[in-house]
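tokens incoming
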């Protein structure tokens, strides 16, 4: 009996922590996206070494990649809360329109930049209020907003673009998208900084923790004292700001504003979010994975063309990677409540 008592009194052996293993497990979605990117670029390189062994190919992709990244990062926040925003293409075009009009009227580009951010935040606020306080579907509401804003753009611009060659002579242009001696487009550094800021906000700030809680279980989040409605509205505001940044940088890259600005980013942005490791059911996600997803999607079309296939395959592969990524996320880990 004494032996049994002494054995029962002993504590069970504690399992030693493995920090490296925990790091890979916590970031498995982002590492999955990185693995997909490496495999894809390897295949493209083997298919055409002359194209994918040339640094010019990567520079050409990096010229416009920041625009997609500015859209993907806030989209991760929106999807994590269990919502969806389909208005960002027109929000991007509408905010860029305000920026272009201000610069074309002779105002300092920094003023146009502030106007664009205000417009983006305002549109995001309207989306959030309609969805949260009027209890409307985020899918239908933002889709309607997308058509509404595009209609306003077409009414105001009447199909005409706004050329802004004078931008290249400004300090604003040189600061955000001007040439440099490194060889990497300047806007890529701003995009990386935006990803790092989004990562800190998502993983190391209480706002990100509340976004996770709201997306996982809004009722439990409310019982914890989290203002669920404010968090849900805030992610749409952030989405509007990200879309405004994307719109301004799209104008800087081309020094021209087009009435169709933002139209081509709807599918690619959603593909990047899902491929990057943010599933549709909310509560989990990854900002870094989303950025890697944007890189993956950006290289699909040039890779397809370099491999000798027709550009008509681009839509097919975009849809395919979305479907495969959702299936992969379902098996990549359970959903915890």
């Amino acid at each position: 009996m004494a032996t049994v008592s002494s054995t029962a009194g002993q504590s069970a052996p504690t399992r030693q922590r493995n920090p490296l293993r925990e790091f890979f497990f916590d970031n498995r979605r982002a590492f999955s996206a990185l693995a997909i990117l490496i495999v894809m670029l390897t295949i493209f390189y083997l298919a055409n070494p002359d194209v994918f062994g040339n640094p010019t190919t990567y520079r050409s992709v990096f010229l416009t990649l920041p625009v997609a990244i500015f859209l993907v990062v806030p989209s991760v926040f929106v999807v994590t809360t269990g919502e969806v925003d389909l208005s960002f293409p027109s929000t991007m075009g509408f905010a860029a329109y305000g920026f272009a009009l201000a610069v074309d009227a002779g105002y300092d580009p920094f003023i146009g930049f502030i106007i664009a951010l205000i417009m983006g935040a305002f549109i995001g606020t309207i989306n959030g209020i309609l969805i949260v306080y009027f209890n409307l579907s985020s899918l239908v509401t933002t889709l309607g907003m997308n058509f509404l804003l595009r209609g306003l753009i077409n009414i105001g611009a009447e199909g005409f673009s706004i050329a802004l060659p004078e931008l290249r002579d400004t300090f604003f242009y040189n600061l955000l998208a001007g040439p440099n001696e490194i060889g990497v487009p300047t806007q890529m550094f701003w995009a990386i900084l935006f990803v790092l800021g989004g990562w800190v906000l998502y993983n190391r700030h209480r706002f990100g923790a509340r976004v996770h809680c709201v997306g996982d279980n809004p009722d439990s989040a409310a019982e914890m004292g989290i203002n669920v409605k404010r968090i849900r509205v805030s992610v749409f505001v952030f989405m509007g700001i990200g879309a405004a940044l994307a719109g301004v940088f799209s104008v800087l890259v081309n020094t021209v504003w087009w009435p169709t600005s933002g139209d081509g980013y709807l599918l690619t942005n959603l593909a990047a979010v899902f491929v990057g490791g943010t599933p549709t059911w909310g509560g989990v996600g990854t900002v870094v994975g989303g950025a890697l997803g944007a890189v993956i999607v950006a290289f699909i079309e040039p890779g397809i063309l370099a491999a000798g296939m027709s550009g008509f395959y681009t839509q097919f592969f975009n849809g395919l990677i979305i479907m495969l990524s959702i299936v992969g996320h379902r098996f990549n880990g359970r959903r915890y409540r």
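note: DSSP finds 16 helices and two strands in the chain.
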